[in-house]
């Protein structure tokens, strides 16, 4: 039967076959492309979830370090203020300041260690955060050695730390880091 149809009008047969084959071919190609896109989306979503988790953890740790630094500085500032105000017992309180500062300094040390784990995942901004973290921690150590220090210098180092932490957070999320 096909021989008879083919022999009478081969062009019509080719048109019929192409009209059947074209949608089937397009459907097959669409199916293959769709599966490939779904596979790539699943990989990207898993990668994005991982980066989001690390970025959130960094943010929590950096916030903790910043809060500890603020608490550290305020302990010294309050002690200094009491001594300058000649409040009763302020000299003894300043001597016991070390007991109050040590847990806060240890918290800063722990958070500094935690922050260092994220540096490698941020090749563009990680070094800046590492340097800023060390600078702020070193400033706190200087305050402990000198029983206080310059609040403006401390605040400036804290600002540099926060700017760098924000940049690393953005880099971990794949966002464009800011250049402040």
Helix content: over 70%
Instruction: Identify the overall geometry.
Output: rod-shaped
Distance between the termini: 79 Å
Separate helix tally? 6
Strand content: under 5%
Return the CATH class of the domain at 54-172: Mainly Alpha
Q: Which runs of at least 5 residues are low in confidence (pLDDT < 50)? A: none
Task: Set out the fold topology.
Layout: H1 2-8, H2 10-84, H3 90-95, H4 97-116, H5 126-146, H6 151-172
Helix pairs in contact: 1-2, 2-4, 2-5, 2-6, 4-5, 5-6
List keywords for this structure.
Four Helix Bundle (Hemerythrin (Met), subunit A), mainly alpha, rod-shaped, 180 residues
Short description:
With 180 residues, this protein is an all-alpha fold.
Structure description:
The protein has 180 residues and is mainly alpha-helical. It has a domain at 54-172: Four Helix Bundle (Hemerythrin (Met), subunit A) (Up-down Bundle), CATH 1.20.120. It is 84% helix and 0% strand. It is built from six helices and no strands. The chain has helices spanning 2-8, 10-84, 90-95, 97-116, 126-146, 151-172. It is rod-shaped, with a radius of gyration of 32 Å. The model has no long low-confidence stretch (mean pLDDT 82).
């Amino acid at each position: 039967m096909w021989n008879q149809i083919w022999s009478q009008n081969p062009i019509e047969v080719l048109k019929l076959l192409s009209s059947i084959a074209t949608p089937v071919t397009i459907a097959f190609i669409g199916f293959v492309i769709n599966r490939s896109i779904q596979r790539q989306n699943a990989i990207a979503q898993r990668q994005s979830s991982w980066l989001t988790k690390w970025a959130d953890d960094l943010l929590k740790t950096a916030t903790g370090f910043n809060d500890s630094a603020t608490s550290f500085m305020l302990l010294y500032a309050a002690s200094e203020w009491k001594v300058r105000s000649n409040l009763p017992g302020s000299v003894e309180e300043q001597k016991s300041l070390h007991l109050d500062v040590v847990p806060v300094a240890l918290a800063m040390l722990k958070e500094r260690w935690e922050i260092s784990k994220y540096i490698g995942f941020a090749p563009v901004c990680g070094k800046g955060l590492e340097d800023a973290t060390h600078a702020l921690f070193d400033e706190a150590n200087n305050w402990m050695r000198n029983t206080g220090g310059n609040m403006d210098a401390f605040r400036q180092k804290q600002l540099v730390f926060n700017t760098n932490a924000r940049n690393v957070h953005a880099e971990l999320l794949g966002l464009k880091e800011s250049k402040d």
